[in-house]
Amino acid sequence: MDSIHIQGGIPLQGKVRVQGSKNAALPILAATLLTGGSSFIKNCPRITDVFAMIRLLKDIGCRVSWQESGLHVDASCVDCREIGTEAVTGMRSSLCLLGALVGRCGSVVMEHPGGCVIGERPIDLHLEALRQMGVQFREEEGRLMAAADRLCGAKIRLPFPSVGATENVILAAVLAEGDTILEGAALEPEIGALCRYLKGCGAGIEGIGTGRLLIQGGRKLSGADFTVPADRIVAGTYLLGCVGTGGSVFLEDAPWEEMKSVLELAEHMGGKICTSGEGVYVQAPRRPRAVECIRTETYPGFPTDLQSVALAAAVRADGDVMIRETIFENRFRVVEELRRMGAQIQVQSPDTVLVRGVDGICGVPVEARELRGGAALVVAGLMARGETTVTGCRYIYRGYENICRDFRELGARVTGA
Ligand code: EPZ
Hints:
Layout: E1 3-7, E2 13-17, H1 22-31, E3 38-42, H2 48-59, E4 63-67, E5 70-74, H3 96-105, E6 107-111, H4 124-131, E7 136-140, E8 143-147, E9 155-157, H5 163-173, E10 180-183, H6 189-200, E11 204-206, E12 212-216, E13 225-227, H7 232-245, E14 248-252, H8 260-268, E15 272-276, E16 279-283, E17 293-295, H9 307-314, E18 320-324, H10 334-340, E19 344-349, E20 352-356, E21 365-367, H11 371-383, E22 387-391, H12 403-409, E23 413-416
Parallel strand pairs: 2-14, 3-13, 9-10, 17-18, 21-22
Antiparallel strand pairs: 1-22, 1-23, 3-5, 4-5, 6-8, 7-8, 10-12, 11-12, 14-16, 15-16, 18-20, 19-20
Helix pairs in contact: 1-2, 1-3, 1-6, 3-5, 4-5, 5-6, 7-9, 7-11, 9-11
The chain binds ligand EPZ.
Residues 22-23, 26, 93, 119, 121-126, 160, 162-165, 188, 304-305, 327-328, 371-372, 399 line the site of ligand EPZ.
């Protein structure tokens, strides 16, 4: 079923465990290709983007199977001769296979990963960085052909800390001849998780958590067991859902050390936060307090992936809230749906909206058009009086294992797939 039905107006109460991180799991699954053996990836989220990545890994020769607590990936039989065909099709997150397959097989053909609803999603930074390592690119009829006679380590500086470009350089560098120094690397925690997995496989990587990475090349990697960290964006979705509905929840396993900007926003909106080794507890006031401005930034700033959810929570604030999106060029699509629920939102410029908080919004049918905007509509439905029906939920299932089950565990009246 592609729709979720919510009887809103109920403050979230209770405890829920936070799933594994989509944006950590996807590059780690791509990285299994760099080993000649088997890995066991625990806490891998059962989401449609992971299912799609599994299909791609199987298409290129990996043996992949779910076991009780995780995913077993055997990359010993990747047949590089097959890679010259249409190896990688669909799903933008497959872009991280570019670096892994060039590293493992020296070439790859893939559909040019186009843009999406939230932006054009160019890949110039990926291509420029990999060219410096000896990769040559050709484009033919929407297909991207990448090949390197010799993949060599290089000194690379990213002009913008692109998460995906950082991941592709790391994935290409671990098997390249010679060392790579990457400056201007993204600092997102998912990069650290990828590096820790690769080190577990025998890679030599220094500077993890900083913007300057030294990646030793030419090592033979074995498989490794690894546990995917909890998803900071899913945790932030539920935390801001609690703020928007005026509830009190405990988020088990929430990686709060990676969520400081989100916890800070929740406190400024009136939430009382308590963190521990087991997770984070938040108690929110009946109505969110207005904050002057929410501005998205690269890590450790406020994450762009929580901008839509923060916008939803802000529609009930006790004043005006400015929201600035500095990462993607079209991440306010959810505004029109929130307005249909009674939210007062003015678009001041392509990157800025002004929310004039209202005490109540109404449940109506709304449509999700992308992953995080869809999650924001579910949060708005929880806040609204009456019934909200969210369609287009296939987008939500790309990143949330079971948003209906999780919110039901927090006392919400939600039905759906
Ligand atoms: C990753 O996307 C995440 N996806 C995104 O999460 C997240 O929003 C983004 O990082 C920023 O944190 C995955 O990890 C699978 P970027 P990515 O390269 O790698 C521009 C979600 O909802 N840019 O850091 O594509 C780009 O257009 C998704 O889970 C270039 O101009 O993000 C954007 O404006 C959405 N040229 C900005 O940089 C390039 O070559 C950030 O992009 C690459 C990027």
